[in-house]
Amino acid sequence: MLSLINWLSQVGSITHVNLRTIVERKGSAIAAAVGIAGVVAVLVGVLSIAEGFRQVMRATGADDVALVLRSGADGEMSSGLAREDTRVIADGPGLARDENGALASPELFVIINLPKRSTGTDANVPMRGVGPAAYAVRGNFKLVEGRRFEPGRNEVIAGVGAAHEFTGLEVGQTIRLGTYEWKVVGVFSAGGGAAESELWTDAAVLQPAYHRGDTFQTVYAKLSSPAKFPEFKDALTSDPRLNVKVVRQTDFFAEQSTVIVAFIRGLGVFIALLMALGALFGALNTMYGAVSARVREIATLRALGFGASAVIVSVLLESLVIALAGGAVGGTLAYVIFDGFRAATINWQTFSQIAFAFRVTPHLLFSAIIWAAVIGLLGGLFPAIRAARLPVAQALRET
Q1: Average pLDDT, the chain
Q2: Which segments of 116-238 are extended strands (E)?
């Protein structure tokens, strides 16, 4: 016990001296901290894109909403349902109901082109044809400006994300899509979900405009409770009149986000690794310089009875302090710059734009600080070993 206390006292004493002399080496120390700050800022910035996209998809899902698509379809674009199919689906067991009947919304999904505000270039934007039940099925629909579209008219309402990212979606504006003109009559929010990147209109108007006949692609169905999903699914998939698959909305959108989130995370880690190598060399240079400047001092301490392990740990702690300082600066910059920043990216499942906000979460910041700590410890390891292994007599003769 006494030996441990004595060892800790040695570590504390040497570390105290090391930290006090950082001011004398502030140039190299700041360079190492800045390199690590850059790694942290880039890592957090890139990964906040994935977190923001994943949050949009998570916010879109609800356990009490089911999606019905054609069997074998991997998304709404590849699905197709006849009107008779949608009627059979609306009669399924376990559906929630209101005064107008079952809360089942047959919907049509098409891709249109609109210019982005940031670049002026055209981008794919999802446009959805819905019926009256769509508002109640979503549950989180909220009109923030204007009014809802009137059935039977060429009117659209835009999600807040789409209105922010694309031109021509202000209330009162008219957009031309093919040979048709559509008036923007409202802007809506949807709890931060993917619907905020869409334009909505009457499905009965959208069908002839895009030559879809009397067909739909998906039915969004609100269940009376999440526990009704197995009953609803089994009834529809076993009905000989239908050839459909039924999934929970949460599962459907979680799967849609898998590919792009994995790609962005992989890209972010790859970039951070490349930058981390540079920061690691910076930390090595700083700590080798620190050790070289204090060779005689370290040798004197060892001659007075300070152990080699105490020297190693003290040098590592000095390197860790510099790294954590850089990590804290990088994390703070990433939070200030990226958190809440709105952008749009391609959803590879639908090949259309989806608007989202970057999210710098506590988990991301914690992970980035761990990266900084690892870089600092690796950067200080070899200089620390060199300081501890240098023969005392030789070190005392160095000037």
Answers
A1: 84
A2: 122-130, 142-146, 155-159, 174-177, 180-189, 199-202, 215-216, 218-222
